[in-house]
Each structure stands twice: as structure tokens, then as C-alpha cells.
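Input:
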Amino acid sequence: MDHAAEKAALGPITGRALVVGASSGMGAAIVRELLARGFAVAAVARRGAELETLRAEAPERIHTRVHDVHATGEVPALFEELVRALGGLDLLVYAAGVMPKIGPLEFDTPTDAEILAVNTVGAIAWCNPAAEHFQAKRAGVIVGIGSIAGDRGRKGNPVYGASKAALAHYLEALRNRLSDYGVRVCTIRPGFVETPMTAGMNLPGAITAAAAAKTIVSYARRGSGVRYVPMKWLAVSLVIRSIPSFVFRRLTI
Amino acid sequence: MALAQSYRYVEHWGMAGGATTRVLCPRSVMELRASFAEARASGTPLTLRGAGNSYGDASTGSQGFVIDCTRFNRILAFDAATGIAELEPGVTLRELWRHTLPQGWWPRVVSGTSFTTIGGIAAANIHGKNNFAVGTVGDAILEFDLLDAQGNLHTCSRERESELFHAAIGAFGLLGAFTRIRLQTKHVYSGELEVTTFAGKNLRELMDFVLAHVDDADYLVGWIDCFAASDALGRGQIHHGRYLHEDEDHDAEETLRVAHQELSPMVFGVVPKSELWRATRLLNHDAGMRFINGVRYWQGRLEGLLPPKRWTHVEFSFLLDSVPNWKWSYGRRPGHGLIQFQPFVPKESAHAVFSEILRRSQARGFVPYLGVLKRHRPDPFWLTHAVDGWSLALDYKVTPATREALFAFCRSLAELVLDAGGRFYFAKDSILPADALERMLPRERLDAFFELKSALDPAGLLETDLWRRVAPERLEGARETRAQEVRE
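Output:
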């Protein structure tokens, strides 16, 4: 197939998305889902080899850039470069996240700071330029991946939960700030999803990353609010959130 | 700390056009200089922008970077004994009056919105509802510092670099960036004005009323119902505003306070004004606007029978701010919005030209939803729009579907104005063709202006979409120089 014919076979571009944290897990699944729906995608991640694999799947529709989300100073220029390459932007997804194993009585500041840098500070660094961009043209969608772990302060991983709770708080504020401008902001709260981050964990009823990505992208096309993935986690969350603190501290969840 | 920047859509205030560009936000002369240097090194043209309140393309730059001056915004000094304010360019009129009014001073010349910046209003040489009495904002500026494209600072006043003083005010960002402005404000005895309403059955009655009151009014502004036809063509109302004398406001200390001036954020105490545009949007079509304009006219007739009322300065001067984001009633998506067409016509032919414009608009089916009539006087600034005559500001609704036909129609109206020796005001313009500038202003003055431009900015670094539209040939030479500089 020649170049033009291949392009035609892909159909028209239905939207332009930028996905940060695209090399594996939920991020990679979201990129694939967007490509399947006719999006042109800019995929950003730390690991170049994984990005290459992704790029090979749809070289016509994907732009890749290696970027470490710790380097927040690079973001404005990189954002501009990628939006130019895409010819505009309709959707930003921040899917980068880390969840290191934390011992029951481990209090390690460098590890904790690292979690916040990737899960929260990096998200803010990417959402801010997108918010400015979308606000000015009064259209656009921002998607952040929170977690049910951000619902309560659990014993297991205090800073992971805090990083996701902070992200959810930030996204809610962004949603309210931008609501006057026709910009939507979605907070995704995945329950158990099979990804490299959760590999080796015992997660009953976990869904695949591809299935989660389908729901997330569908939600991003119309929603503006908080979406549990899958929906049943809303019920679980409501229960967990209603447990009184003096009981919650005695539980092992 | 790196210079703040973003990549976003920068549009005409009226939303009819714009482009996605890199926006740099310098906060000081140093940062401004750095952004000039960066652009010069890469041969990228720069557009200076304040708060972006020009209706058209006066502060958009689709070809290069945009410099947003709104964060360069300290009030450097204010002397409550003389009323002289020293301001950085990003200070808005709102910030200024909130600082000065409690001390008894009000900006001498203000725009219809308070969100404009001092740098922006100096670059546009704006006028207010008191243009006939006190001139433009340039007449209230005592001195300024201007950073030219090569990084040199010029301190200009009527005595010092007087040519540049009179050329840069009203130059729409072509000669340099204002970095400091010394502004004379006006002493007021009260936070309120006395406002009298007069309703006139046609344009002639309104103009006669204005002429009869130029000596006893401080402000005169007319609202025209552009839908009224035949004998009632140009009917509307005039607001006649007068400053209060020292003994007329016994509670001046209270009326001068910011809290007394503040517009309530709610309507009827419960509906937030920020949502009002959604309601006005339902009436944003010819039938709805015919109705609104009719109601406003009859309301004016009624008010005309009542004794004068007191309005706060903010209510009277910044009427456009009373409904936040009212322009969204024209549509919120980029490309949907309004353009303003504001001809300035010498007094001899103003009535005939305005009547013809209203008649043609009605015949063509493009009826302005808002018409504003003002009296003007000439001023000494090189590129001034003011004439000894009148202006009629007309808001036309624009959508992507009507855009081309509307622009062509407005250009045909512009011919009428130019033939009558009229001028246009770039802060409002979106439609003027490339030859309009040469027809509006004397050739020698334009030659002198562009000579100054090439001396200060040989590489043509400073441009705007507006300047590229109205003076493409005048900018041509510099573009070549700019490219050459980068090659070297």
C-alpha cells in the first residue's frame, strides 16, 4: 500500500489527543483505544523502547516523545511542539503514575517525594498548559487518572493515596474553574485493573487495561466529573467512605 | 526564573478571528528585553498585547509570538496631591480607579470597559464619552518610557523626544512597548455623577441635543436603536453626565469608597450576573434585538420625563462590564461573535453618512444590535482617529456563515466614510482594506511615521495582524531586513 492509500484507509482524524505516561499499562491502552477511534495521538513517556513499539502500530497517526515528568521545566515547550505537530488539541490524558511497595511501618521521604512528583506534580505541570490552551478556545477535555486509593487514608500506602487525593482535588478545582469556558475535566477512579503497576498483586475481579481504557475514552467524549471504572467501584467507594474513622483504622483494607 | 509562556488561542475580543500562538508574559523591562532579543535572534515577529480588548485584530499576531503585558502591572506611584499616577503597562483601569478614587481622583479618559490596560489604551489612544471635552487618553499622558525593538529605552514627553511621544501614542504597538506611563487623573468631589436622559425621535434630534450641551456636560453618549426606520431613523437616547460640585454630595467620603462603586455580582440578590449571558443569548437574533432596542428607547422616553439621577462613576463609565462575558450571547465558539464598525466623520457630513449607513444596513439585512453615538475633537497624535465631528459605533453579529458577506458589506460602507473624509479607529476595526490607511491620513504624516518605525525597528520585529492588513506595503521592506539579519 502506498502512503496516500494507507492514510485513506485510516479514515478521517476524529480528534487530537496528548497522552502522558503512554509507555505501558493504562496509558498505552488509552493510546490504542484513541487510535482505534480515529484520533491522532501524541504519546509521551519516559521509556523510549516502549514508545517505539506503540509507534510501530500506527506510525501515521502517532507522534512520540521521550520525557521524564520530573522535568516540569520542559513541559511548556514540549506541549507547544506536540500540539503544533498534531495541528491542535482536543484531549489531554495524564496517565503517568507510580506505586512503589511500601512496608507497613516504612517512612521514607525520598520514596514519598518521588510518588508525589510523578503522580501529582507532573500532572499539574501538564494540565496547566492544557487548561490555558483549552480555556482560550473554549473547548477541550482534560482527563486525570485518580484512584480509589485516594478515597480514604489507608494504612497501606499513605503517600500514594495522598498523591491521588491531591490530584482529584486539583482536577475538581480545574473542572470548576473551566466550566464557564465549555472545557470538561474528568477524574477517573479505577478500581482493580491489570497493569504492570499492579502485577503480582491479588486483585479479585480485576479488569484488563484495554477494558478500562474503553470506558475512560467513552467517558472523556461526554462526561465532566468523577467516573469509577468499572462503575461498581462507586458502590464500593460509597461504603468505604462511610466507614467511621475509629472502625476504619482497625480494618486491613 | 524562566519567562512564563503558554501556547494558546489568541483572539479578537469580538471572537470573529484569532490564531494559536506562543504567548510570552514578561513582568519587567528586563524580561521584556529578553523576549525581544529571543524573537530577534530567530527572526520571529512580535505582537504586543494588553488585556486583548480590541474588537478586532489590533493585538493578535498569527505570524509570530504574542507578548502579553498583563503581568507587568505594578502601580509604581500615585500622588494624591497632584493626581499623577505612575504605572507599569499592565495595570488595568479597574486597578487604577480602585487605587485612586478613594483618594478623590478618577482617570480622565476611560474606555467602556475597565478591563483594558494602561499600555493598551495608550497604544490605541482611546477616547471616552468625554472626548469632545477632554480629548483622548494621550492628552492625559504626561510622560512615558518606551522600549524599542532594539532594546533601547526612550523617555518621551511633550518636551522630550516629542515626535516619538506623539507618534507612539496611537501607534498600536508598532514603535515599541510602553514600560512606564505617567498619567494625569482628574480630581472629583464625589463618587457619583448626575445623569440626565434625553430621548430623541431621530438622529437629528440626538445630534442637536449633544450640540446644545457640549458646554454644560462632562460626558455625552448616545445609544441608537438601529432597527428604527424612515422618520424614526437613528432614534435613541443621550446620557448627559456631569461631575458633582464640592457642595453637591454631602456624603462624598462614602460615595468615593470602592464598596459604593462595586457592581453587585447578583441580579435580584440571587441570580449570579456571570450566568446572565445565557439569558441574553436567547434574545440574540434580529427579532430579539429589535425588541430589546425598542424597549430601551421607550425606557429612555420615560426616563427623560424624570429628574436627573445619580450614577456611580463605575456604573456610568463601565456599562459594558455590568453583564460579565456579555459577548458570549453572540455565541461562545471561536468564529461566532461580533465586529464593531466605527466610522468617524467630519461634522459637516456626519448626519448624512450615518443615516445612509443605517439605511443600507437595514436594506441589506445586517442590522447592528448596538449603536453608540459620540462627539469628537481633533488631537495632536500622529495616527489619531479623531476628527472634528462624530462617530457611530455599530456592533454587527458575525458567524462563520455570514462573515464574508458581512465584511464585504462593511467594506462598502467604509467607502462612504473615506469619501467623506472620515477615519476609522483601529481598536474597533476588523474590515479595512489595505488602502484605507493611506486614504485616512496625510501622506507626509505616514511617511514620517514609518521613517520613525524603520529607525527604531529596522528589522520590523514589531507587527500585528492589524498592521499587516492595513499597511502591508509599508512593512514589506523591514521584513527583508529581518530575514537577512537571521541569515547573518
